[in-house]
Design a protein that fits this description.
The structure holds 2 protein chains of 2 kinds. Chain A is of the alpha/beta class. In chain A, 30% of the residues lie in helices and 23% in strands. Chain A has helices at residues 39-45, 94-97, 153-158, 162-172, 188-199, 212-221, 235-242, 263-271, 280-288, 310-316, 327-339, 358-366, 382-393; strands at 2-8, 11-16, 28-37, 62-69, 81-84, 87-88, 116-117, 134-137, 145-146, 180-184, 204-209, 225-228, 248-253, 289-297, 319-322, 349-354, 374-378. In chain A, strands 3, 4, 5, 8, 9, 16 and 17 form a 7-stranded mixed beta sheet that branches. Chain A has a 6-stranded parallel beta sheet with strand order 12-11-10-13-14-15, sandwiched between helices. The longest helix of chain A has 13 residues, at 327-339. Chain B is mainly α. Among the domains of chain B are: 85-95 and 103-153, no CATH class; 154-197. Chain B has helices at 3-11, 16-19, 23-26, 40-43, 108-117, 125-148, 155-158, 161-167, 169-191. The chains are: A alpha/beta, B mainly alpha. At the A-B interface, strand 2, helix 4, helix 5, helix 11 and helix 12 of A face helix 1, helix 6, helix 7 and helix 8 of B. The structure holds zinc ion (2 copies). Residues 89-90, 93, 95-96, 104-106 of chain A line the site of one zinc ion.
Chain lengths: 394, 197
């Protein structure tokens, strides 16, 4: 089968590799019809996540049609069109029993600090991802969700990570009516966090980024105020001026370790890798939020240490919340929002690229070329696979 | 749950929030700091505003919810996946997880470094630094493996240079010029005659 293949920092290609097989009675094999490139794939692409092995196939955001099921699978059947949350989870460990699906303890032997994630290095469990024609989906009765007929493929694929992560970012900010919310990062997750902040009753939503086309997009799509940090001397001071010197009620880090905007952080975090990515945005969040405010972190940082102004967080009495999104718990509500027209996730897709051109797709997204917001990769034969699902339904 | 709202209302003495505007510049005092709170009427033009204002509508509230609502997990422990390839296991857990990935088993020099890395815990910085080192070694192994199979990797294509040329030709020319200058300077420095030798 054709699959994305990691060769080293900034180097990927589409190449043939052996098809995945059922390795556990609860597994399914899914034929992919859509997969996305995610901002957090860029941390892998840039070589920042430890134990990213050559030959790995990325892709934790994918939907497809069930191609084969293991002997213990009861609920899923061949031909079902499914969306697969990016986290692998068992449903029965202590954490899953507390609905912390992003923190499952049963799917990642190689680290206890992070759960299993498709196509996200061996630090996240060593599973090949969905930027391929076929993908192994363990715990097939637990993780995947059969996509309702009225939900479009392009909306469904954004429900696997970007939308629930943005939504959970806003939720972890514990937004109250009228709150001023600052979202750092105008990528897909930041865009959806801004949209979700309005759903939760925010009074002002301000989005910060450095790329003008992304700011123009989010301003229009999420009806928010925008700030280009390249035009600002000091981020925290600027937010204080914008908020009558109070600071924001809620700040959201939707960037993580690849943040630009600080020479010292870029040098130590992105180039020397002496900390787990540049914590620039985390500094801005802690220093821009008002005393007693909330900081919500969904931007991905690596597992090693980061230089973080924890003293300021202490003295300001902040609440910091952060997690990988527990995608599955958000799906029913988010599907309601899509049906009611409150959210139109597919409108952020700017690029649909054949899987064969995955190297160019990564480069375009990484270098922010061609006004790219979100790229969907389409494997060869996706249409035929889609037809299988349609015939199974009717 | 709406504590921040209540605080805001408490501070909202009549007229105060509006009077303070301008004071910042004209008065030596910093005035009364009050967060701005637009009314729902001012916000109703925003698509979906307030649909999840009530925390009961937020699926992640409370943070930990038990029993879980959205999984169909079977009772009892998860069946153990058979180990067919070498899987490195964090020393911070007993045994191996019931489910695991088998994507790229450790191999070669990088695999040997990874095995050493897994002797230290996740709490030990050496663990992660060794893994990053192994990743760099692995890149070289990848090139060697390609060549051994008679495949000369097209590194420019793998880096997506075609798309750079299509969407940012000026930038590509600049990068090429800088790279050319660096190589040229290195060449000059290595080949110049040293008068003191
Ligand atoms: Zn993602
Ligand atoms: Zn679990």
């Amino acid at each position: 089968m054709l699959a994305m293949n990691y060769r080293g920092p900034y180097r990927v290609r589409a190449a043939q590799k052996p098809e995945p097989v059922i390795e556990h009675p609860g597994d399914a094999i899914v034929r992919v019809i859509r997969s996305c490139i995610c901002g957090s794939d860029l941390h892998l692409y840039h070589g920042m996540v430890p134990d990213t092995r050559v030959g790995h196939t990325f892709g934790h955001e994918f939907i497809g049609v069930v191609h084969e099921v293991g002997p213990a699978v009861e609920k899923l059947k061949v031909g079902d069109r499914v969306l697969v949350p990016f986290n692998l989870f068992c449903g029965s460990c202590y954490f899953c029993q507390h609905e912390l699906y992003g923190n499952c303890h049963n799917t990642n032997p190689q680290a206890t600090a992070v759960g299993g994630i498709y196509g996200y290095s061996h630090t996240a469990g060593g599973y090949d991802g969905g930027q391929a024609e076929l993908v192994r989906v363990p715990m097939a009765d637990v993780g995947p969700m059969v996509i309702p007929d009225d939900i479009h493929d392009d909306d469904a694929v954004l429900l696997t990570d970007a939308l629930p992560t943005g939504y959970q970012a806003a939720e972890m900010g514990d937004i109250a009516q009228g709150d001023t919310v600052v979202v750092f990062g105008a990528g897909p997750v930041g865009i959806f966090a801004a949209k979700s902040a309005w759903l939760m009753g925010a009074g002002r939503v301000i989005v910060v980024d450095e790329v003008e086309y992304r700011l123009e997009f989010v301003q229009r799509y999420a009806q928010c105020e925008v700030v280009n940090f390249r035009e600002v001397d000091d981020m925290a001071l600027h937010i204080k001026k914008m908020t009558d010197w109070m600071g924001a009620d809620v700040c959201i880090d939707a960037v993580g370790g690849d943040a630009a905007g600080s020479i010292a952080q870029t040098l130590t975090g992105r180039l020397m890798k002496s900390q787990a990515g540049a914590a620039t945005v985390l500094h801005w969040c802690i220093n821009s939020v008002r005393k007693g405010g909330n900081v919500s972190i969904v931007g991905v940082y690596g597992p090693t240490f980061n230089a973080v102004p924890i003293g300021n967080a202490l003295n300001k009495g902040l609440t910091l919340r952060m997690n990988q999104a527990s995608v599955k718990r958000h799906l029913p509500r988010l599907i309601e929002h899509i049906r009611e027209g409150r959210l139109n996730p597919k409108e952020i897709i700017t690029h649909k690229v054949p899987l064969e051109d995955v190297a160019d797709a990564y480069h375009i997204f990484s270098s922010k070329l061609d006004n790219c917001i979100k790229t969907v990769l389409i494997p060869p034969n996706a249409d035929q696979v889609r037809a299988v699902s349609a015939s199974a339904l009717h | 749950m709406e504590t921040r709202n209540q605080i805001a209302e408490h501070h909202h003495q009549p007229g105060q929030a509006h009077e303070e505007h301008g004071h910042v510049h004209t008065h030596p005092s910093q005035g009364h700091l009050v967060p701005r709170r637009p009314s729902p009427e001012e916000l109703k033009h925003i698509q979906g505003w307030g649909a999840d204002l009530d925390r009961k509508n937020r699926p992640g509230v409370p943070m930990e919810r038990t029993p879980p609502r959205f999984t169909d997990a079977k009772e009892g422990p998860v069946t153990q996946q058979p180990e067919r390839v070498e899987v490195l296991v964090s020393p911070e857990r007993p045994g191996i997880t019931p489910i695991f990935g088998t994507a790229q088993p450790p191999s070669g020099v990088s695999g040997a470094i990874r095995r050493v890395a897994f002797k230290s815990t996740e709490n030990d910085l050496r663990h992660w630094l060794l893994l990053l080192l192994a990743d760099r070694v692995n890149v070289v192994e990848g090139v060697v493996e390609d060549l051994a199979r008679g495949h000369v990797p097209n590194i420019f294509a793998e880096m997506g240079i075609k798309s750079e040329w299509k969407h940012n030709p000026a930038g590509l020319v600049k990068k090429a010029a800088i790279a050319g200058a660096v190589v040229g300077a290195a060449w000059y420095l290595l080949n110049r005659r040293d008068p003191y030798r």
